[in-house]
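Go through this chain for my students:
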Amino acid sequence: MLTSPLLRSVKARYPDIKIDYVVKKQYADAIKYNPNIRKIFFYEDAEIDITENYDLIVDLQKNIRSKQITKKIKAPIVSFRKMDIEKFLLVRFKINKLKFSSPIPVRYAQTIGDLSLDNKGLEIFIPDNIMSDFIEGNNIAIAPGSRHFTKMWPEDYYITIGKKLNEAGYSIILFGGKDDRELCKRMSNEIPGSMDLSNDDDLLMTVVNMKECLALVCSDSGLMHTACAVKVPVLAFYGSTVREFGFTPFRNKNLILENNTLSCRPCSHIGRESCPKKHFKCILEITPELAFNGLKNLINS
């Protein structure tokens, strides 16, 4: 989804251009119905056979796998600048060379040179036959999961804010993928009137349901970007990661809650399995009361 502004802007500038896309099968739903894409190739372990003739290859991964693919295609290549050295300096030595860096979608566009993005933000396309599971109303979405522990707001904090929102007249809808099913089930059992719509990584079903919500409360995660793609306001918690890495809610109404009093942040550019300082203050000091008040302001602003 973070590439969707680039695809849209390239197509707007060059209407006759043909864009093919390479992606893992597990992420295909994010771009499967995008009208700016002509053809989608799937790759697993770099086993892919692309025989088309291309004028340009845009490598936004710039890793071993993408290099294995692109070296087989005879065409000029431009690659995304990942700023690995800058991220290393910020994480290890707190030397911030990323203070004025752009969000990832903008940096993707900079890969092609003078391409400028429009103001529409992220997007995802859903077939008309996929319908929502519930009726719209005072629904607040909560997506508690994340791939890394140090990016996750605590389960009991989510339950607390869920109960407070329920008392305030909102219905809680829980979202997550296959790895979040047990977590969402436990939370649903604790939050009165909540609905558990976690699923086995059915992104398109998640999207149509999330569109019926007033806002999403979540970690710095993929579902945060999903909400942005359907213009659902986002309240996001940033623990071990920081805004400078570029993965912030893009051109969408949002509120990021983070603890800026700590000298140990960031401790990772992707997240960790535990707090290296053992106190986890980056997350634990973002209280449910702070989040509840912030969410009210976000919804009403």
